[in-house]
Amino acid sequence: MAHDVKLLQPILASAAPLDSDVTFRPMFGGVFAYADGKPFASLSDVGLALKLVGRERDAMLTLPGAVPLRYDPDDPPSKSYVVIPEYMLSEPDELRSW
């Protein structure tokens, strides 16, 4: 399912903790989200992908529908960005916990 970045941006913004300074910048044909100046999410037609490492990445990948980010099916899977499951797009509290 192709996603519209313009729809993903307000979803992520509403799920961000209130004390975070979240900004968005166009990059690679999509948008990257930054918290306090550091990149933490990729928004593209592939979906909303969070930058996760170690146990957090492993835990996200156990959720049904979560997959390593690939902008193109022939690309190698990202080692740090994971596309969140579709259901989280309508669950801001659950998304916020990540």
Task: Describe the protein.
By secondary structure, this protein is an alpha+beta fold. The protein is built from three helices and six strands. It has helices at residues 5-15, 54-61, 92-97, and strands at 22-27, 30-35, 38-44, 47-51, 67-68, 81-83. A hairpin with a 2-residue loop joins strand 1 (22-27) and strand 2. The protein is globular and about 35 Å long.
Question: How would you concisely characterize the structure shown here?
Answer:
The chain has 98 residues and is an alpha+beta fold. Helix content is 26%, strand content 30%.
Distance between the termini: 22 Å
Strand content: 25-35%
Helix content: 25-40%
Radius of gyration: 12 Å
Tally of strands:
6
Which structural class do the helices and strands define?
A: alpha+beta
By DSSP (H or I, 4+ residues per run), the number of helices equals 3
Task: Write down the overall mean pLDDT.
Answer: 92
Regions with little confidence, pLDDT below 50 for 5+ residues: none
Sketch the topology as an H/E string, one letter per element: HEEEEHEEH
The spatial strand order of the largest sheet comes to 1-2-3-4-6-5
Largest pleated sheet: 6 strands, antiparallel
Principal-axis shape: globular
